[in-house]
Design goal:
Layout: H1 10-15, H2 20-23, H3 27-37, H4 39-48, H5 54-64, E1 68-72, E2 83-87, H6 94-107, E3 111-115, E4 128-131, H7 139-149, E5 155-157, E6 165-167, E7 170-172, H8 179-186, E8 190-196, H9 202-213, H10 225-231, E9 236-241, H11 256-272
Parallel strand pairs: 1-9, 2-5, 2-8, 3-4, 3-5
Antiparallel strand pairs: 6-7, 8-9
Length: 274
């Protein structure tokens, strides 16, 4: 019989965060958040697979949720592992799960550039190159990233930095951040594009539209991401992998930002080239 360990404690995370808004949340609101994100269920799953790490852990989670994965273009995964594997970000958790599982299974290792909150999950801690998406990054994060970029370890990344939202009546990433282009050039890493088909529930986007319409800046819809994760249970996730883009493509004819949007466009073009 497995004993459930408290890996995720929302009350503690909120009360020790750097956000003044979060720290002011009353306890009953925090309790509601715990219910919405299914904190107990998350801790149960993490406890059930406490002896697994990295790709093995990712495989167990996929089996736990009975997620089926259909991948087109596996032949485009290069023999050279020194690449950035980048993708659109329609789901929040499941796309990260599938992207890292795919890359890790091919090359035996990977690092994911991700929110530092994932460092709280010991099953993945060694595989996360953490960034603080809500503030300045400590020097240790920056040094860790530079060391990683200079290695031969494959790196997965969602350059939008945030989950896709409704944009011009369709679900799409926001502008992609330019950093991965700069690092691709500096460390001679080609870029392998992934496209994920699908989207989150309409409730997620309705929450986004509602809080934008009343001028709330905080990303309140993020609290629904664990719910979206569990809604993918027994579903099929479809992915298409494009041909690698050489780092030598990124010359001075465009800015880093413009090249980042170029790569984003190539990713979305994979959808129309099926």
């Amino acid at each position: 019989m497995n004993v459930t360990k408290e890996y995720i404690n929302i009350h503690k995370i909120i009360k020790t965060s750097d956000s003044k808004l979060l720290k002011r949340l009353p306890n009953f609101v925090i309790y509601l958040i715990k219910l919405i994100i299914r904190e107990n269920e998350i801790n149960r799953i993490l406890s059930a697979y406490a002896d697994y790490e990295g790709v093995d852990f990712l495989t167990k989670i996929i089996h736990e949720l009975n997620i089926k994965i259909e991948i087109e273009g596996k032949e485009n995964l290069p023999d050279n592992r020194r690449c950035f594997f980048v993708a659109n970000h329609p789901f929040g958790f499941v796309d990260g799960l599938v992207l890292t599982k795919t890359v890790g299974s091919k090359y035996g290792d990977f690092r994911a550039i991700g929110n530092d909150i994932f460092k709280q999950i010991p099953h993945l801690k060694s595989k996360i190159a953490a960034v603080n998406v809500f503030g300045a990054n400590p020097r240790e994060y920056i040094l860790e990233l530079e060391k990683l970029f200079n290695s031969d370890i494959p790196i997965t990344h969602f350059p939008a930095g945030v989950v896709s939202r409704i944009k011009k009546r369709k679900v799409e990433d926001s502008d992609w951040q330019k950093g991965f282009i700069k690092k691709a050039i500096a460390y001679q890493r080609n870029i392998v594009p992934f496209f994920f088909y699908g989207h989150n529930s309409y409730l997620f986007y309705l929450c986004y539209i509602a809080r934008k319409s009343i001028g709330v800046q905080a990303n309140l819809e993020l609290v629904l991401l664990p719910r979206e994760f569990f809604k993918k249970k027994n579903k099929t996730i479809k992915v298409k992998i494009g041909e690698p883009i050489s780092y030598q493509t990124f010359d001075k004819s465009k800015t880093y930002f413009e090249w980042a949007q170029f790569v984003k466009e190539q990713v979305y073009n994979l959808k129309s080239s099926q």
